[in-house]
Specification:
With about 350 residues, the chain is of the alpha+beta class. The protein folds into three domains: about 140 residues, 3-Layer(aba) Sandwich (Oxidized Rhodanese, domain 1), CATH 3.40.250; about 110 residues, Immunoglobulins (Immunoglobulin-like), CATH 2.60.40.10; about 80 residues, Immunoglobulin-like. The protein is built from seven helices and 22 strands. The strands form five sheets. It has a six-stranded mixed β-sheet with strand order 1-2-6-5-3-4, with helices on both faces. Strand 18 and strand 19 form a beta hairpin. Helix 1 packs antiparallel against helix 2. It is elongated, with a radius of gyration of 27 Å. It starts with a helix and ends with a strand. The N terminus is likely disordered.
């Protein structure tokens, strides 16, 4: 622990009481008294090394938020990577806290731990269930050599699964597939494009003019209305200034009259044909089963292509733009899906 003492000695000549507090926190940095913790809750006061471990463990967690409650004057030039700001001294602070989503995991900090401890108690009273208070604040964080930044950036992440489990929908019904994305960092996230669903049996209410601030979620839906019993799938891409996300959705129609052909049923082999719409190459995934052959038909039933996948991929660059039927032979079972080819 002598190295920790050496790293903090310059403070002692400025503020002895603060030095004592920081020194105690540094010595205790491997021990954290949990306030309350279960599978659904995490209410705790963590020391710096544990906060660093928490950040690393949640690198790919879209529902993790670092909440800096210092003034903007202190926050803007130096903050933890990706941290969002809510000024503790603002008259709107309570309102801002109350507007934060309850389901996310928050790591809160201030300069030295005083304001964040009070805020921790406030958030517990507001029924937040996943809040961790950084004891010692950014002051001890920096003195132990952990990084800060002056940069800001957006980060697009998906809260929903990007591969949606397949389902069968009765012909005449409309299936609503709810999806959620978020801005995981601290600059304004704007959307560039979303892949067109034109020519498919899928539509969406996604609004590309939407903007997301740090920690904001955006909920949108994909709607599927089957017109027949042939499997339909889409692979669509959302592009933004904070990165891109691709989703894959597979649905099948089911006749309510009871006319249904089991030989075209897809659930047993979980066959994925993507991207859809496609341009040059088509990927075939059969959940570990071998794909014997792939036949592509026009909508009039004419065979336009036959292929054996090379490492799960076939070249479709010779096909003209339009709608086709892809027939995949797996374990002597034929599985059919619609495919949109664009140029």
């Amino acid at each position: 622990m002598l190295c920790l003492i050496k790293g903090l000695t310059y403070i002692s000549g400025v503020m002895k009481n603060s030095y004592k507090i920081i020194l105690l926190l540094a010595f205790a940095s491997f021990i954290a008294p949990a306030y309350s913790q279960s599978n659904d809750t995490l209410l705790a006061h963590y020391y710096i090394h544990q906060c660093d471990s928490l950040i690393l463990a949640n690198t790919y967690n879209p529902d993790f938020v670092i909440l800096d409650i210092r003034t903007p004057l202190k926050y803007i030039p130096e903050h933890l990577i990706g941290a969002i700001n809510r000024d503790y001294y603002s008259p709107l602070f309570n309102t801002w806290l109350d507007e934060l989503p309850r389901h996310k995991l928050y790591l809160i900090h201030c300069r030295s731990g005083g304001r964040s401890t009070i805020t921790f108690d406030m958030m517990v009273e507001m029924n937040f269930t996943k809040v961790v208070n950084m004891l010692g604040g950014i002051l001890v964080w920096k003195n132990l050599g952990f990084p800060t930044t002056s940069e800001f950036e957006p980060l697009l992440m998906s809260v929903s699964d990007t591969i949606v489990p397949p389902d069968t929908i009765a012909i005449g019904d409309i299936d609503t597939i709810a999806l959620t994305i978020t801005n995981r960092a601290n600059d304004t996230l704007v959307f560039n494009t979303i892949s067109s669903l034109t020519g498919t049996e899928f539509t969406t209410n996604f609004n590309t003019s939407t903007t997301l601030m740090g920690a904001d979620d955006y909920n949108f839906s994909i709607f599927y209305e089957p017109g027949d019993e042939i499997s339909d799938s889409i692979s669509f891409l959302i592009e933004s200034n904070g990165g891109d996300i691709a989703f894959y959705i597979e649905r099948s129609g089911l006749s309510t009259t009871g006319i249904y052909s089991p030989e075209y049923h897809n659930s047993e082999y979980n066959v994925l044909v993507y991207p859809n719409p496609a341009k040059q190459r088509l990927n075939i995934f059969a959940g570990g089963y071998s794909v014997d052959e792939v036949v592509i038909y026009s909508l009039t039933g004419q065979k336009v292509m036959y292929a054996r996948p090379d490492k799960g991929t076939i070249n479709i660059s010779a096909l003209q733009a339009g709608m086709y039927i892809v027939e995949v032979m797996v374990e002597n079972t034929r599985i059919r899906q619609k495919l949109l080819v664009h140029r």
